[in-house]
Amino acid sequence: MNIIFSIIMLVIMVPCVLFIFFYDYPAKWRDKKYIFGIRNRTEFKEEKVALRVDEIVSSCRKKAKLLLILSLILMVLFCFVPNFSIRLVVWTTFIFVDLVLMFVPFTNGHSELKSLKRELGLASEKGIIYTDLKGAGAVHALKKSSLIVPNIIATVFFLTALLNDLGVVKLVGLLPGQQAYQARLMTGMTGALLFVSFMIIPIAFMMDGIKNEVISEDSDINANYNRAKKKTMANFMVLFTWINTAVIILMMIMMCIWDNQLIILGLFALYMLSVMTGAFLFGARQKMIENRYKKETSVEIDDDDNWILGQIYYNPDDKRLNITKRVGVGTTVNMAHPAGKILGVIAILMVIFTFVMLIYIGVLSQTPMVVRIENRNVICHQMKDDYSIPISGIDDIALESDSGKLKLRKEFGYDMDPLYKGKFSIDDESGCITFLDLNTKSYITVSADGKKYYINSTSDEETVEIYNDVVNQLTN
């Protein structure tokens, strides 16, 4: 689990930080529409001013490169953190902190370019919004069927996985050695990917419905420019949806044939690589469009002051909710819009919730798992009484000596090595109730009321003592 988790995090985070660095800190700024969230202007390209901009861009890019190198080194080091729960907390905290730090040079560059504008006497026209009335709302590029068809296919496969999980059809177990827990895993993973596909639908329609950007006094140029940009965005969304659908199909096929986590990990890595490749191609295509229409741009809106740090759009005079992003790809929301404020609050609450859960997991991982006997019940306790097994209901009990040899597969519960709690498949037997600390070698198996328990306490001595006490009470 530790190795798989580390590889997954590397597969996710390495492309992300590389994308941020190469997309937001380009070596050549003269052909960019925006520099650190500030609209690129002809005044910036004048000889003396250009030297100043060169210095700002170079300085910020060097700082970003140092942060990138440090990030990559830390990611490798995190793979060697021995405790899984600590590693989870460290990785999750790192993701939040690193993504913020990677934008610090960007915000510095944004601030310096704003100062440069003031020195040059270039004032922003904060409230101006241009609308091409002739083509307002007329440009759309997304075909509904292009998103609906792959989602229907994905839904069919997910429902098949669900019916298999419920026992209505039989997919898992077609070959010897397949276990019931795989059915639940298949349902969960295909369901998660299908949820992502469903989330793409409103996002795609929202981006396709965004008001046209005005770059020219010629309505035909505006229409062609916005159509090209929206077509590129629509193609990326459709590609993303088909990638999700393809992964759902491949995952189901593989899980019906093999019980191999490395194969699933490889498929996940291929999925992330495909999505990131699509994102890079999308960015390259958008750049081509900007270059194509650069000479035809005759209307430039200087609304830099509406962008906080070049990333957060706040303009009470703009009634639009969705705005094309200046950083990265896609759209962002107008934080001055009532719906934008609600989304902002939700985002903050989600971040707070994530850190609260991290604190909870950290405390839980450091809390001992204790087994005690109380009122003729075997109590399994960690922060609370998780399980209570009446001694009078025990049908069979045995003391085993090597918990490290158990083959544990989570069906539901907590599996932060070395602590395992919940319902697990153990040694190919599904539905086992587990309360184990693998640092303790001894463990007790208990059969009671039709359930199989695997439990131990904080030490071998305590576990053996609990076993002897239960046996004594059963024989007396």
Describe it for me?
With about 475 residues, this protein is α+β, with helices and mostly antiparallel strands. The protein has ten helices and 15 strands. The strands form five sheets. It has a six-stranded mixed beta sheet. A three-stranded antiparallel beta sheet has the order 7-8-9, covered by helices on one side. A two-stranded antiparallel sheet has the order 1-2. Strand 12 (about 420-425) and strand 13 form a beta hairpin. Helix 1 runs parallel beside helix 8 (about 260-290), helix 2 packs antiparallel against helix 3 (about 85-100) and helix 3 runs antiparallel to helix 9. The chain is elongated.
Index terms:
single chain, 476 residues, alpha+beta, six-stranded mixed β-sheet, three-stranded antiparallel β-sheet, 10 helices, 15 strands, 54% helix, elongated
Counting DSSP E segments of at least 2 residues, the number of strands comes to: 15
Shape verdict: elongated
Structural class: alpha+beta
Low-pLDDT parts are none
N-to-C order of helices and strands: HEEHHHHHHHEEEEHEEEEEEEEEH
Side-by-side strand order of the widest sheet: 10-14-15-13-12-11
Distance N to C terminus: 43 Å
Main β-sheet description: 6 strands, mixed
Q: What value does the Rg take, in angstroms?
A: 28 Å
Mean pLDDT: 83
Helical amount: 40-55%
